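HUMAN: Ready with one sample?

ASSISTANT:
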Amino acid sequence: MGQRDLPGYNVDAVEAWIAENVEGLSPPFKWTKLEGGHSNLTYMLEDGQGRVAVIRRPPEGQLLPKAHDMSREWALISSLADTPVPVPAAYGFCESPDVTGAWFYVMGWIDGHPLYNSEDTEKWLPEDKRQQAAFHFIDVLADLHSVDPDAVGLGDLGKKDSYVARQLKTWYRSWTASIEDAKHDDPRAHELQAYFLDNVPEQGPARVVHGDYGLHNVLIGPNHQVAAVVDWEISTLGDPMADLAYALIQFPHPQDQALIQDGTATSVPGFPSREALAKRYAEKTGRDLSLLDYYVGFNRWKGAAIIHGVYARYMAGKKSTEGVDLERLFERMNHSMTLAEQAYKRLTG
C-alpha cells in the first residue's frame, strides 16, 4: 500500500490541513502505522526535517454513539496540558469530516511504549525498574484525581454524580440482554449487582476518571516512568475510587493469585503488591481506602459483564470466531465473577 493510499485518510487533504493549521510541521510526511489504541487509525508523521507527531481518527464504517470519541480525547489532552498529568502535546483538532471523512487530531510524539503483555514488560521495563515504574504509574493516577475538572475546563465532561450506580445499571442491562445469545447466565451476576447497587459508597467530589487506566494505556519512557497517559476516549467525570481499583486489580494480590492470567504485563517478577500501591495512593491523596474492596468487586463484576457481552456476540455468530479461544474467554468471564465474589466476601466478612 502506497504512502498516499491509507485507510481512512485522504493524505493530500490531511497534509494540506496540517500545513495550514499546525505550526512546526512541514508536509509531506512519512506515515508509519502505530498499533493499539482501540482500533483507531493512528499513525506517526515525520516531516523532512525529522520532526514527528501522531495523528488519530476513528476506524472507518458505522460507529456506536460515543465510540472512538476524538473530541473527548482532544478535550482531555488539551485541558490537562498544564497539570502534573503527563499527556501528549495537543497540536490541532479538525472537526470537519470534509477533510478525510471523520474528525481527527494531531498530537505530539512521545518516546515511550505501552505494556500490553509480559513480553512487552520484559522488553521495555527491566525487572529492577518495575517497582519504580509501578509507583510512578500510581502517582500519575493520584495527580489526575487531584485535578479539579472545573478549574481546567472539564466540568462538562460528564455527569458528576452516581458514577458507580449508573455503571452498575448499564452493565447489568448488558448482562441480561446477552443471556440468550451467550446461552449462559450466572446467579452471582444478579446477586452481586443487587448488593453493589444497594451499598454504593458516597462518591465525594467528582474527578476525571480515565476509565481504562492500565499499563496498556500509558507510555513508559526511557527513564522507566510514565511519559504520557493516552487513549482517553471513554474518560468522564465520576468516582476516582473506581478508577483506582481498576488500576490496582492489574497487579498481584495474594488472595486471588491463582486466578491471575499468565502473560499479562504484571505477571512477571519485580512489581510491588496491590497493597503497596494502594498505600502509595492513599499517602499522596489522603483518601480513605477502607472500602477499596467494594470498588475491586464492582470492577471485577463489570469486567465479567463486558466479557459476557463479547462472548454472546461470538456465540450468536455476530463476530468471527477465527483465532478466538471461546473456552478461554468463558474462563476469563467466570474468573472475573469469582474475583468479584471474593471481594464481596471480604467486605461482608
